Amino acid sequence: MWTLALMFLAAACLFSLGVALWVICSHFFIMHIPAAVGHPVKLRVLHCIFQLLVTWGMIFEKLRICPMPQFVCFMQDLQLLKYDPDVVVTDLRFGTIPVKLYQPKASSCTLKPGIVYYHGGGGAIGSLKTHHGICSHLCKESDSVVLAVGYRKLPKYKFPVPIRDCLVATIHFLKSLHAYGVDPARVVVCGDSLGGEIATVVCQKLVNTPDLPRIRAQILIYATFQVLDIQTPSFQQRKNIPMLNWSFTSYCFYHFLDISPSWHEVIMKGAHLPTKVWEKYRKWLGPENIPERFKRGYRQKPHEPVNEAAYLELSVVLDVMCSPLIAEDDIVSQLPEACIVSCEYDILRDSSLLYKKRLEDLGVPVTWHHVEDGFHGVLNTLDMKFLYFPSSTRILNMLTHFIKGL
């Protein structure tokens, strides 16, 4: 009995060691760490930890123990939350939607700005806990009331459920601003990664709602605004850079939109959409909309003839809740001013550049902050001690400055 137990334990240890070695070796063989990041060892460690969680998650998913996103979220949420004595945090529910409310502890008779925050994670990972530090810092540094929305996500809930959850929570908040001491003229929507896209969609949905306070501004941090074209310069240049590489991007893309991965080659060739669609949106998606300095080494590839079967299944990418960049002019032109943060070493970088130009062309004021040494997800390192990156503080300071200026 004991012999079998010891043998099983030894086998488990060897297998775990093998998984760790596989993750480390694949990282060094596949991942590219740019010298400009400034802390290459930190980035390697951070990515290996994340990739180890994803790899174990995929193993458990193959064994039908639990889906990968569920395992990664479970491990991420094990972290102990650090509470700032100057910030009051309250867990609430708007109907069935969990939210966290962050309020400055110091009492004040004046109304404060309100920030609705939507976390990132590709619809697969991320939670109220993973973004607790960001929301707490935003609350304290900008002297604002922050509401973080815990929307439903993978594996059970796919597009557009997370967006609907966030829209419902935002409307609930807008209808009860007085209860939280928020100035109706200074409500901001904010999000990182998928959360940035959600913030954009919420703004677009609430453009023509005169019965609600108007959104004052939108803060969009390394967000994704379109999923039609995945052959932009940043997709070619940054596909093997932590923290968001092409492997994890594609997993989120296919699972979140409920698209079969068997269409991968068709999508890569641009054959999932007909010529008339590419021509219609070229004025917003074409590489000529991206500044030349971001196109080093870029090779534009012609789109192959449409695969009709793929087009029928993948037409969801044309939904403006999925690709808010292609919303009509009469909607985009009415959007509030935007603060856009892009990172140089991010596979989604060009999405921010394209949306920035779209807004500017329609006269929407844009404050743009490009982090030359930044990578996707860097803001989450704010409270990571050894794995902290200085660019996270620069982003926070810029966001704080923008909010105080409203």
TrEMBL record:
<dbReference type="InterPro" id="IPR050300">
    <property type="entry name" value="GDXG_lipolytic_enzyme"/>
</dbReference>
<feature type="active site">
    <location>
        <position position="193"/>
    </location>
</feature>
<dbReference type="InterPro" id="IPR029058">
    <property type="entry name" value="AB_hydrolase_fold"/>
</dbReference>
<dbReference type="GO" id="GO:0052689">
    <property type="term" value="F:carboxylic ester hydrolase activity"/>
</dbReference>
<protein>
    <submittedName>
        <fullName>Arylacetamide deacetylase like 3</fullName>
    </submittedName>
</protein>
<dbReference type="InterPro" id="IPR013094">
    <property type="entry name" value="AB_hydrolase_3"/>
</dbReference>
<feature type="domain" description="Alpha/beta hydrolase fold-3">
    <location>
        <begin position="311"/>
        <end position="379"/>
    </location>
</feature>
<dbReference type="Pfam" id="PF07859">
    <property type="entry name" value="Abhydrolase_3"/>
</dbReference>
<dbReference type="InterPro" id="IPR017157">
    <property type="entry name" value="Arylacetamide_deacetylase"/>
</dbReference>
<feature type="active site">
    <location>
        <position position="376"/>
    </location>
</feature>
<comment type="similarity">
    <text>Belongs to the 'GDXG' lipolytic enzyme family.</text>
</comment>
<feature type="active site">
    <location>
        <position position="346"/>
    </location>
</feature>
<dbReference type="GO" id="GO:0016020">
    <property type="term" value="C:membrane"/>
</dbReference>
<feature type="domain" description="Alpha/beta hydrolase fold-3">
    <location>
        <begin position="115"/>
        <end position="244"/>
    </location>
</feature>
<keyword id="KW-0378">Hydrolase</keyword>
